[in-house]
Amino acid sequence: MSLCVEHEVAAAAAPEGPAVGIDLGVANSLTLSTGERIHLPVPTKTEEAGLARLHRQVSRKCKGSGRWRRAVERLAKRKRHLAARRRDAAHKATSRIAKSYPLVVVEDLHLRNMSASAKGTQAEPGRNVAAKAGLNRSLLAQAHRETRQMLAYKCPRNGGELRAVPAYHTSQKCSCCGHTAPENRPSQAVFRCVKCGSEKHADANASENILADGLSVPAHGGIGRKAPVEVRTHRRRAA
After folding, report:
1. Would you call 23 a catalytic residue per the annotation?
2. Has residue 235 got a pLDDT over 60?
3. From the candidates 47, 48, 73, 107, which is the catalytic residue?
4. Labelling 94: which of 35, 102, 128, 191 has CA 20 to 30 A away?
């Protein structure tokens, strides 16, 4: 039996301290404008190989049989474990961020477009299809939408604010002089401005641009403060 219970939670005072910008990526799950980099526990190569083996076991069984159902349950159990591990780490990271910063700025990613297939059509086949498929898997494994949803209710609950800004050119723009060019990013991890010579970690540079965009103008698609009292719904299992 599941019971839905509503109760009122008084909003806390806004945390003291500066605002922070967050860059969401693949190599680094969350990169803060303070320089901190947070890695969420995504599946390793060994764990991905284990999942592939379980998928093969399911495909080899006769669908609907007892062995097929047991194989499906083993696969589902493994996926639940990996998802719960990532979700637990994301909850801990987002709770700490929401309690530490009065303003959190994230990039407004369109994950559906970013993770679209590159295989194209038979008449116009895509390029680097295998590489794009691997990038899509790595991007979806980070569950950035889930992380943003956590921040969306945790920031107002702790008296803070969450804003979302467009992600255009945040990775190619220099946070020091503002020069924007694809040549500024020679590799995934290195940002080197071709105009002023500033060099830093690429994700840290992007997070600084995200913070600056969030502070300069009203954020596009931003999430403002909620009412002083918010109503949360909790599901509790009866004893």
Report:
1. yes
2. no
3. 107
4. 191
